[in-house]
Amino acid sequence: MCGRFALKTPVISLRETMHFDNIPPCPVRYNIAPSQDILVVRQVTGRREGQMMRWGLIPSWAKDPQLGHHMINARAESLADKPAFREAFRRRRCLVPADGFYEWQSGNVKRRQPFFIQRTDGQVMTLAGIWDPWVAADGQSILSCSIITVVANATVGAIHNRMPAILEPSDADRWLDESLCPADLLSLLRPPAVDVLEAYPVDRQVNKPDEDGSACIRRIEIEPTGKLELF
Predict the structure, then answer these.
(1) Catalytic: which of 26, 103, 145, 216?
(2) Which residue among the candidates 2, 94, 145, 216 is catalytic per the annotation?
């Protein structure tokens, strides 16, 4: 899964590399948590737009927005079939920029070790996402999104069996292409090669959503246990 991530690259730089026109109010964040607003890039009438959306997709047909708490991730394997996701997959795809994401080593629940996973080349990740608009009976409107996950590659798989779907630049263009149907896009949702990512341990302070400083992504040393092998 993907339950926390960081976006420390300034929005001005993201605008240049991800080719959206506007400048949404996106602060630098080191510990982004579900239900918070995150930056997504979507295609609107032929142009790219940066938009802040609530992380946790609320399907347009939902009666209760709390449903979004259970929809922070969407499995690639069920995107085309699951009622909560299939319409968004067909018509409302987006990109989610991230400098890296966190995952927790399985094991002792009380002492699970967090890891930060980033690209080895230092570039911003482009995660595949979907979004949906939701309107309450009183007219309140919420834009929300989910990050798509796939089976983990060997680097992440040493820590957790799922990971976000990371798109290459050419795949990102296709993901937003409104002329393509879902069947044309499923092949883009695959784990990256092992050497694309690196994972390193970070302090458990990241377990707390209100901890949001650069220390969250600082590499630490841990005692070897013989049970975890990172590639």
Answers:
(1) 103
(2) 2
pLDDT digits (tens, 9 = 90+) for 147-177: 999 999 999 999 999 999 999 888 999 999 9
* Catalytic-residue membership of 2: yes
Task: Give the integer Cα–Cα distance in Å for 181 and 160.
Answer: 31
Q: Which fold has domain 5-217?
A: hypothetical protein yedk fold (3.90.1680)
Cα–Cα distance for residue pair 76/171, rounded to 1 Å: 15
| pTM for this model (two decimals) | 0.92
| Domain spans, the chain | 5-217
181-213 pLDDT tens trace: 888 899 999 999 999 999 999 999 999 999 999
